[in-house]
Amino acid sequence: xxxxxxxxxxxxxxxxxxxxxxxxxxxxxxxxxxxxxxxxxxxxxxxxxxxxxxxxxxxxxxxxxxxxxxxxxxxxxxxxxxxxxxxxxxxxxxxxxxxxxxxxxxxxxxxxxxxxxxxxxxxxxxxxxxxxxxxxxxxxxxxxxxxxxxxxxxxxxxxxxxxxxxxxxxxxxxxxxxxxxxxxxxxxxxxxxxxxxxxxxxxxxxxxxxxxxxxxxxxxxxxxxxxxxxxxxxxxxxxxxxxxxxxxxxxxxxxxxxxxxxxxxxxxxxxxxxxxxxxxxxxxxxxxxxxxxxxxxxxxxxxxxxxxxxxxxxxxxxxxxxxxxxxxxxxxxxxxxxxxxxxxxxxxxxxxxxxxxxxxxxxxxxx
Length: 367
Ligand code: AMP
Hints:
Layout: E1 13-17, H1 21-32, E2 36-40, E3 54-56, H2 63-72, E4 75-78, H3 85-94, H4 101-107, H5 110-119, E5 127-130, H6 133-143, E6 147-151, E7 161-164, H7 170-176, E8 182-186, E9 192-200, E10 206-208, E11 212-217, E12 220-226, H8 232-248, E13 253-261, E14 270-276, H9 286-289, H10 294-302, E15 314-322, H11 329-333, E16 338-342, E17 353-362
Parallel strand pairs: 1-2, 1-4, 2-3
Antiparallel strand pairs: 5-8, 6-7, 6-8, 9-10, 9-11, 9-13, 11-12, 12-15, 13-14, 15-17, 16-17
Helix pairs in contact: 1-10, 2-3
Bound molecules: adenosine monophosphate (AMP).
């Protein structure tokens, strides 16, 4: 159980592990609430360094540097789930780390994540843990094809993943993911993909944003549409799943839960695909369509502040600017109902997230 601390005073210092765009937007939100921000990241071109009061350019296993970082900050959070477990353990022993190291450990390993979700009775695709190529054939005798093979660790944007349509695909799929510990799971014939972004405070209070509907191109998130095209019952069921997960992890901060929505007669079965213990790309729409966005909500939660209202005052379409899309920013900047968010990255590369645009439309029935 988390110890409920007094709210962290403005002027205190928040440490962020990871210097990407999520760290940058967290730092900006923290600055708006009067906090100082220190960012720790081994990449000298980190977008978050440009908006932080202090940058720590060190490897995540440099304990001396981590010690100084912990000493100089009042609380530490992270912007990506692949923070090494020993880094999280080292920092947790010295200072408050949110979300907790246990949640991080579960979210960074797909097998641990599946076992955890199973323990909470939340529906997921039938799966099996894989450590050798022979395990795949054995597992698929039960699970059947089509199936998806996913490396247990470090997978993102469809990387470390291979679809198995028939048993003949097994050796190629195993090679494709790099012959590493993995899970294999049933292919879910979903209608749409949604995500729920939820904030949980130190006292267990929770505030969820409306589910967003996610559209991918080349396995990378391209757009999030809000409201999602789902029934009210599915909306509430998705929120309930997110709350169950956040409670079970004794979570503090923003948690993202990705779900597959299927189509069955009279209802829409939901399967959790993935959880992310951090602010999430599919929550960027909240910056311009909600009273308190995901970044401020995360800072409020970890600092023991009351959570803000997550009410959506507008419908939204969030469009990622990926690679060359970046050059379209002047077009979007000239449109009245579009907010442009750029990450300060100097080099445009194929597949690289350079920024995003939120198109909003206020509506009378805003939740
Ligand atoms: P992930 O890295 O697990 O988020 O997966 C990336 C994408 O692959 C998802 O957004 C889905 O479009 C697809 N995918 C992953 N797992 C499955 C599955 N079990 N069934 C169908 N599609 C999947």
